[in-house]
Amino acid sequence: MSDLIHDQTPLAQAHNVTSGAADHGGHGAGHSRHLAHHFNSMSQQNASAKLGMWLFLAQELLFFSGLFLMYALGRYFYPETFLAAHELLDWKLGAVNTVVLLFSSLTMALAIRGAQTNNQKSIVTNLVLTIVCACAFLVIKYFEYSHKFHVGLLPGKYFSANLSELGLHHIPADFAPGVFFGVYFVMTGAHGIHVLVGIGLMIWLLVRARRGDFEPQSYAALENTGLYWHLVDLIWIYLFPLLYLVR
Amino acid sequence: MLVRNESAVAQQAGATSAGAAPVAGGEPSYLTARKGIGSWLYTIDHKRIGLMYLVAVLTFFLIAGVFALMVRMELLNQAKDIVDADTYNKLFTLHGAMMVFLVIIPSVPATLGNFLIPLMLGAKDVAFPRLNLWSFYIYCFGAVFLVYSIAAGSFDTGWTFYTPYSTTTSTEVISATTGAFILGFSSILTGLNFIVTIHKMRAPGQTWTKLPLFVWATYATSVIQVLATPVLAITLCLLMMERLFGIGIFDPAMGGDPVLFQHFFWFYSHPAVYIMILPGFGIISEIITINSRKHIFGYKAVALSSVAIAIIGFLVWGHHMFVSGQSELVSVIFSFLTYAVAIPTAIKVFSWVATMYGGSIRLTAPMWYALSFLFLFTIGGLTGLFLGALSVDVHLHDTYFVVAHFHYVMMGGTIVAFIGGLHHWWAKMTGRMYNEASAKIACALIFIGFNVTFFTQFILGSKGMPRRYYTYLPEFHSLHVISTVGSWILAAGLFTTLGCFIASLMKGARAPQNPWGGLSLEWATQTPPIEHNFHHQIVVTSGPYDFPEIQTTTTNSHNVKGH
Amino acid sequence: MRFISKKMEASIAAGGHDAEEHHVLPLPLYFAVFGALLVLTVITVGVSLLGLPAQLAIAVAMAVASVKAALVVLYFMHLRYDAKFYSFIFIASLFFIALFFVFTIGDMASRGLVIPEQATEVWRNEQLAIKKEKAQADGTTGGVGTDAAAGGSAATGSESNTAGGGAPATPNAGDESGGANSAGEKPPAEPGASGAPATAPDTHGNTTPQEGGGTTENPMQHPQ
Question: Cβ separation of B257 and C9 shorter than 8 Å?
């Protein structure tokens, strides 16, 4: 917020406040321009941000765990449905998406490494690559979804596809494709929303990176968004075999 | 036994009870440092955010309380008194949903926690002040949805949203669950903020074993908030998906299982009750020690029992489902674990009583509330044991016994502790004193009214009166009348408290810096505090309970270790 | 409590809280991890094409996914090199997730331990049988379709029925008068003449899926 008062306490005054990034030894001696008023040092600030992000990831894990439990029970109740219905998914597109996300994780990690090594060009390039991959993921998902909407492979009670037209001839007795596609859309939908949020975050990071905000002593936002992005990748690592490769 | 009254203590604390001049550097308090509505709406000061939460929480407490009074009014007679059955269902649903999500869960952490945690740690603010403000606005946003759902015709599923009714009813379930979903994020972010603050922003010398027990309690609460609330979020999401798309995991006609919803729901909602009570435990630890002038008995036991409750609390959710069709094997396991969670809770109660023993007891209004808490919470906890026994629960489930049990722990426990805490830290927050006599009268009314209302309900429940029923058999009539009259006494007590606080704000005496002679860091700074809490970085060398009046062996050894 | 000394001030400013190790990993490591992830993805797909039995396939798929996850968490997320507390948070979340799964699935799986008729499989089959009856009563398809496995002697199905002493079900598939009662009733329900081509449960409540029941009959399209 713009109405932050500049810290005028004796503590700050005793330190001959020096702005600018030339910190020695990575311990935040002298006050970096990035230091918030309520922290004593960049080290404390960065550690706090990272801890906060790991806690946020913990709650994201718990959030998705509910979805995975729903999957597990859906499959437990309807094993044949899951076996049969997954053939209506295109595993090749899923595999491409997997590779795209893994590559984006790599580029994200490299962007962070760029900040650690003060390689501004690397930060920007890798961020751009990550964003491109993330968008590619969403584009592929868009094609998958639109195809499904088109042929009626919809969740729950809206399922209306003609299965034999889609090449599905072996249909089990208690076939409940609405359950499978309900699970499919809720899980990939939740994941997709997280990808979208990730793209938004990374665009903001890109703006900041081009401003030169990230340097070896202060790249917490980059690092923590990276953690978030890797979690998004992690979830897809499990989603892909469970949804697309059910054999 | 030494007896000290407040003014003597106040003088000892080195401040006069008259005079308004702020201390030391002439800095204004956080209340007056910045002016204008914008300075409140855009604040990142944890103290102001705490106050805004307080106003919101008390407002919803009032509204949900009125709904409760209407419920009790309707139950005065078997026939219709003031509302029809559908409206009655909506009233108790809203009372429950608003109390759980808008009042009790945020009550202590978001109000007192926000205000006190940085102060108790010797910090300038929480770790993420802007996130703190966001949490408040997310809370408001979620509240809007719940209020909207009321205006749009409300919902009548009970606050527990059980399927299949919640997936098929045409009432306003979606807006209500959306509201609860959003409120969950406020809770998660607050918890996250506190965990990082407590880990990273303690003053030098503030080791974990020198933390006030309120901090330990808040820490344990925050862990639960972060881990459990997302499961509520996904549960409500799945409920909405079920309503909108008919996916079928909760619907038996489509091969799903409605009990699955209950598993999802209670995985959060049971730890949620520990979110509700743990901060109350923290408050009681503070009030009892200060008003007994004695070090807490068994500091480490009390501190670690909070953590133990947090962890074990995740292992017992199935005890809400004993009669829902849950398997017998799993029910037995849950029942056993339910008894396990009573152990750390009992450790606390023993420790508080042992703390008072041999102490220099000061019967201030907060202490009255703390003593009420001990009585009421113990009853609530013990009756939980009845419900945890499988065979007994078959008879008591979904009766008024359960209603009485959770009101004893949530209201007799958390709300009483919350109000006691408000009294205890009122001076610190507002710079004013309240009228001690009125506060005590209010406490007495609350205590009497509460017991008349809810003890009667234990009897009603064990005689077989089911909960959430609009009407009842004639044999229950007189007990219902007693319970309703009790609710009026209780309401009178609560309104008296409100009046007491308002009077304090308008014409209360100026508070000294440390009216109760506390040793934790919040008392070491100006009352009310300046905007960034402390003039200089505090260094901690002794514990928060090393009161000099009564030298126990514990106190002595702590003083030795502290230097 | 006293005001801070100059020495203390200096130590705080020097970041006495905790110095973050800015561990810079070598570039080749990142690429190696990525390579390994790609290989593991190929393995995942490859194994799925092998046609292993379902339980084994899931186990292998999850194992491979977990190795990939471990690589991402340890190296890309730096958990291997960071403060142990972050690992603790991560593992703790997994612990609570495991709790959630174990008790919930445990409940579903153990319902039949004391009273076999209450096993999840059993009452679900009843529900599905009811649904099928209703579908037939609604007459969306004439007749029952080619039921190869006429183990639609759902007479065996009645062994696991809890409903009043299990009246033997007449395996009359097309019988529309077969007391199709309202679907969506919670168990135990009167199946009536469960003449529908229900899957035939054996005494352990397991089902043998039947072949090709009505290609055009889609249970999900019928109103509940």
Answer: no
